[in-house]
């Protein structure tokens, strides 16, 4: 079976074109291909499938085989794959609040609904920068009662790993716990990450992010991902952190997120309440599973 290895800021996945391949058990396949010694090595598996509702459908599986509703770095790579391989005819333009209009657009069916994105090609004519309308953040536990059992407003106290954390919970279709810290180097993510990921307040588990507000225009973050552990970047997580930083009065709605794997431009737009995420997508290699 053919696959393509791609990453968004080092958040790497194995991509399978399900217009041409059949994946019978994606959960088991995600576990197998994600293994960095006995498999291909990745943060998970992403299937690019036909859709009746959008140009394509994206399904994302974590390294532990669990399926998530959305993947921000992943959807940028899906857009690149679809555009570069001409799988769908892109739309003519995509307007981005506060930024120049992008020349091409695509729609992707996800677990968080149909999302629209814009593509800026590089000099080689291939997709280089992608801006995704990630939709509206969900902040009320009542809207997603099985996701958060804590009050997602600012600063809910959660006990984990022998410590108390003030957690702001934001859903971007998938759940995120955001904690602010003045020193990210001091965070024992290997210990605290799984303790919060699996906390009883989060019956669907949760992605965990620690954020340092550098200024009103910039923040830095580190991530423990639900089902995948520490990753170099988390696109939905960065969007959730941007929303949380604004809610907590630490950053502006338009902000530059510094992730270990690189930067994302974020804008939680006041007009439509949607979060716009702009960043790169990279094709590493194409391969074939024996
Ligand atoms: N890396 C992804 C997030 C995956 C989230 C997944 N770990 C979950 O279970 O929600 C991103 O760029 O948004």
CATH architecture of the largest domain: Roll
Annotated CATH topology of the largest domain: Diaminopimelate Epimerase, Chain A, domain 1
Strand content: 35-45%
Biggest pleated-sheet summary:
18 strands, mixed
C-alpha termini separation: 7 Å
Give the uncertain stretches in residue-range form: none
CATH class of the largest domain: Alpha Beta
Number of helices in the DSSP assignment: 4
Amount of helix: 10-25%
The averaged pLDDT comes out at 95
What general form does the structure show?
globular
The set of bound ligands, ions and cofactors reads: 2,6-diaminopimelic acid
| Strands, total number | 20
Question: Can you characterise this structure?
Answer:
This protein has 290 residues and is of the alpha+beta class. The chain has two domains: 2-133 and 279-288, Diaminopimelate Epimerase, Chain A, domain 1; 141-273, Roll (Diaminopimelate Epimerase, Chain A, domain 1), CATH 3.10.310.10. It has helices at residues 26-34, 72-84, 189-197, 235-247, and strands at residues 2-8, 11-17, 44-49, 56-62, 67-68, 94-96, 99-102, 104-110, 113-121, 127-133, 156-160, 163-171, 175-180, 207-215, 218-225, 229-231, 254-259, 262-268, 275-280, 282-288. The protein has an 18-stranded mixed sheet that branches. The mean pLDDT is 95. Bound molecules: 2,6-diaminopimelic acid (API). 2,6-diaminopimelic acid binds at residues 11, 62, 68, 71-74, 174, 207, 225-228, 231, 234-237.
């Amino acid at each position: 079976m053919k696959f393509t290895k791609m990453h968004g800021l080092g958040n790497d996945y194995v991509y399978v074109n399900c217009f041409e391949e059949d994946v019978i058990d994606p959960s088991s396949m995600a576990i197998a291909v994600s293994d960095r010694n006995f498999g291909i090595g990745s943060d998970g598996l992403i299937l690019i499938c036909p859709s009746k509702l959008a140009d394509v459908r994206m399904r994302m599986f974590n390294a532990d085989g669990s399926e998530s509703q959305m993947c921000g770095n992943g959807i940028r790579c899906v857009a690149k794959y679809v555009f570069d391989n001409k799988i769908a005819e892109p739309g003519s333009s995509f307007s981005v609040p506060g930024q120049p209009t992008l020349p091409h657009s695509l729609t992707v069916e996800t677990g968080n609904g149909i999302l629209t994105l814009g593509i800026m090609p590089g000099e080689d004519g291939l997709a280089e920068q992608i801006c995704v309308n990630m939709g509206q953040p969900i902040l009320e536990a009542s809207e997603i009662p099985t996701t958060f059992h804590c009050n997602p407003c600012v600063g809910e106290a959660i006990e984990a790993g022998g410590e108390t954390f003030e957690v702001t919970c934001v859903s971007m279709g998938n759940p995120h716990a955001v904690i602010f810290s003045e020193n990210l180097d001091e965070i024992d993510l290997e210990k605290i990450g799984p303790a919060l990921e699996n906390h009883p307040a989060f019956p669907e588990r949760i992605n965990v992010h620690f954020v340092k507000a550098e200024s009103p225009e910039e923040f830095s973050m580190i991530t423990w991902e639900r089902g995948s552990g520490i990753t170099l970047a988390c696109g939905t997580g960065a969007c959730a952190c941007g929303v949380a930083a604004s809610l907590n009065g630490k950053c502006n709605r338009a902000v530059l997120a510094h992730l270990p794997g690189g930067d994302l431009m974020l804008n939680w737009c006041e007009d439509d309440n949607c979060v716009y995420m702009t960043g790169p997508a990279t094709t590493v290699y194409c391969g074939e599973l024996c």
